[in-house]
Amino acid sequence: MAEIKVIQKRDNSTEITISGELTIYCAMEAFQQHFQQLKVKEKTLFKLGNISEIDTAGVQLLVMLMKIVSEQSSSYRVVSLGEALTDYSNLFQLNRYFVDFADISALTSGSEEDKS
Amino acid sequence: MSLDAVLQTFYIEAQEHLESMENMLLKMDEGECDDEMLNDIFRSAHTIKGSAGIFGLDHIVNFTHVVENVLDRARDNEIDIDKNLIDVIFKCRDHMQSLVAVSLDEYNAQTDLQKTDSDLLAALAPWTSTENKQTVAQNNTPAESQLDNKLTNEGDNENLWHISLRLSTDCLRNGMDPLSFIKFLSSLGEIKHIETIIDNFPQVDNFDAESLYFAYEIALQSDASLEEIENTFMFVQDDSDITILPPTAKIDDYLLLIDKLPEENQRLGDILVNCGSLTRHSLEQALIAQSTVITATGEQTVTPKLGELLTEQNKVSESIVSAALTKQKQNKSQVSEGKQIRIDSNRLDHLINLIGELVINQQRIELLSKGVKKPQLTEAVDDFENFTNQIRDAALSLRMVAIGGTFQRFKRLVRDTAQELGKEVELTIDGADTELDRLMVEKLGDPLTHIVRNAMDHGLESIEDRQAAGKNTKGQLKLAAYHEGGHIVIAISDDGNGINKERIREKAIEKGIINTDSKLSDNELFHLIFHPGFSTAAEVTNLSGRGVGMDVVKRNVEALQGSIDISSQAGKGSEFKIRLPLTLAIIDGFHVEAKGTHFIIPQATIIECINLANHQDIKGRHCINLRGEMIPYLNMSEIFKLTPSREQTLADNIIQHSPKRELVIVQFGSDVAGIAVDTLNGEIQTVVKPLGPIFKALKGIGGSSLLGNGEIAFILDVPQLIELAIANEIASKVSRAESMNGQ
Asked: Has this prediction a pTM greater than 0.90?
């Protein structure tokens, strides 16, 4: 079961952290609870490094999430992909969606949480 | 289709492939080795591995991968197929069957299966390449390891297939992840490119996290056949749009594909170029030509479809476009309709039971309509009966299966048993197309196995003995099936030693089954082998000779309303004939009455009906002379100790005479006897219902049926009654002879 945290930060950014198993078994619940009504700030950061297992339903959910974020005119970045997502992304050649920006310091330095 | 249903299909398909493998291996074992057989075996192993991979059944994938590699080396003539290799492949096939029967968790818990795994892989070692050994040792999923390498490889564009997948939106929900297909495709060759298309994603409010929105365009470099690639998607064909373009596909095939797909043409074209399936130049030419066409008068027309455009440009003939489109339609209809469907046998049994009820109700309506005497109603009831009969026959035919499948399994049994016994045996199969009720076919397996094993163990001689007897060293065993007088006969014959009558007699006396002075016919003597605990074998082998089995054989066959005859000639061989009814569910019967009790005689056994009053009993015995033939008969009221019901007695008193006596002459095999009853009521469709345990001990009754008027009728077990009539006749002859001697 995936653990999802959406943190709105004071620097006008949103940080979305997903860890654990993101599969069809939890995709529906994850979407309805966390993403269907999601509001993001100007910048969005995805932390996906701790996804231990992912299947096609999980990847679709991430693509949908990025679509939601884009539609709110938020610029997004993926920081840390994790092995499971990297493997999937390589296999299906989805790297254009899941680019791992390793150096996130510029984006995250000085940021503080305002709510979680 | 749910995941369980898909898995069930996998098990059925795997079973079919394993059977096919076995048949091919048997042929190869007999010396009939050709490339096509080897290809068939390889394809079976390959498909099982691939399908297992789709379901994540890694224990099957890992083991089968090694077997497949050995087979592939044999296909490439890198190794020779000899008797030893065939033996090992046989064992591997059996092990694959065991692996298919268990889940991955069960496999992990069963050390014996894992041990067989390693034993067989060690046995295959002389034929495996170093590469294969490494794959197994690392215990990688082969598909995955191949995939990792192949996606990073760059090669030429020969044998480049293009696969376009618009899978059913229910795909994920049904437990099928495209990940599995891609992994399997990678085992067929090298995936050069995958384009995952996300154009079909809905708006957020309409997003269903369990639906599949991804579409895929895949370039696969592979030597595989179209069938092999198509089989990858066999579990998701329904509601999916799958196009596979072979390496030989022309530009117009691709353009037709672009035209067909829902995405925008230019974008699809780019995807195909990215895949390496099309060149940029050829795509641009066609797409430019396809863009808005301006007529000579300057009026803008509707953008033509690519196929139409290509035809106009004379790049491809109209017939080719139309043929391609027709083929597309055909492919779609084949996928959606299919020529065969699989049905759960329980559903079929339920249908037959319902039809049984329909038949009973139809008879009830017929009976009621006789009281009304309205010609229009009679006509409608006749039509109803006609259609009911047709429905009955059609439904019963659904449950009929050819016996060939069962016979085929004996090839392997015969091969292995012959090897074990050190004998040479050739199995011949005749009448494999003969159809029998599925329920019977299932229950015939064990009896046939016992008879075949006995024939090989005790009937057929050793090579030395056959040489000494001047016979061909290869013993002949024949399994045959054919129709005979409304029954199916299954004959198992051999050209061995024949049954030793003297040994049977000695053994029967020794076991106290018969007395020293018992006079038995050959048939009776042979039937002693069905006595529980009877065995003439001097030596007990692990195949037969324990006396357990032949009595079970007889019981099983009788439970199917059948009988067994044995014929044997010393030194020439034996034949076991199993006679079975065509079906057990609904039969054509003949309704008779004795002392107010209703009986049904299976119509297939009836020769004729005569009036018993016109024939005299021979010397006080229940036996008549019918056109020179002595026919023993049984009186139903005596046999079943029937007493007339109160209504019957009253009716008899009113009529003032006893009912006339009728004799129904019945036949089973070569035996004929008569059944004496009071009234003949005529033909009737009979729904066979099993008897309750209270009637089990009652000889001569095989089942029961409900009549249209709600009364119960007993279905007579004709073989048992004939046996009884003949036994009674012999007994009365003997007692008469003894009393004459006494005088």
From this structure: no
